[in-house]
Amino acid sequence: MSTPKFIAITAATCPPESKSAALEDMAHFAHDCRQNGAVRVTYGSVISGRYPGALVFVQFFEDLRGFEEIMNMIPQSSAYSRLINDHSVAPFARNIFRGKPIEFEPQFEPMPKYLMLTRAHRRTLDETAMLDLLNKTAPIFKSSGAQTMRMGQTLTGSDLGTYMLGVTYPDMSAIERTYDALAASPEFGQLMNGLEIDMRSITKIAGIL
Q1: pLDDT at residue number 3
Q2: Cα dihedral sign for 161, 30, 201, 15?
């Protein structure tokens, strides 16, 4: 599967009493996005890490024209209007990332349940070396149960120039197995020594389209 050229991640606050209804309308909005430029959409709510309880909406694009088409579509989307006006959803961050090549064949069946997002700065590694080490560790993620693996560099929004790694899993046990296995990987050790991890969070996935 080809690497999406661009990824947009939006985070928003939501009152706890509105979360269930908001997630339902996020599904409707995801359909709107798929019909207007996004090649895939993943959405859910943060359960650990920074901003617990926040809603997360991830969109994948072949080009930025797809993102532009969605921005033009939003004023006509009844689902988006309900999110903002009826469910008091308030976006507080939206970043666009340029996709980086990761050798990882995705698996969407069964639907992944968890998305781990890790943001990092390059410290001593150049980008080529970083990606080489990450690709060498990708089989460990795969054999331990990870279902998808994507990386992007921040192009717009906050934390410009940082990198975001997104990995999905079928259950928490797969996350535990992955990090136990990575602890024994020399390549992963080199990768961690050359990066500065700024954020790591887990999102409970509500849907993937």
Answers
A1: 76
A2: positive
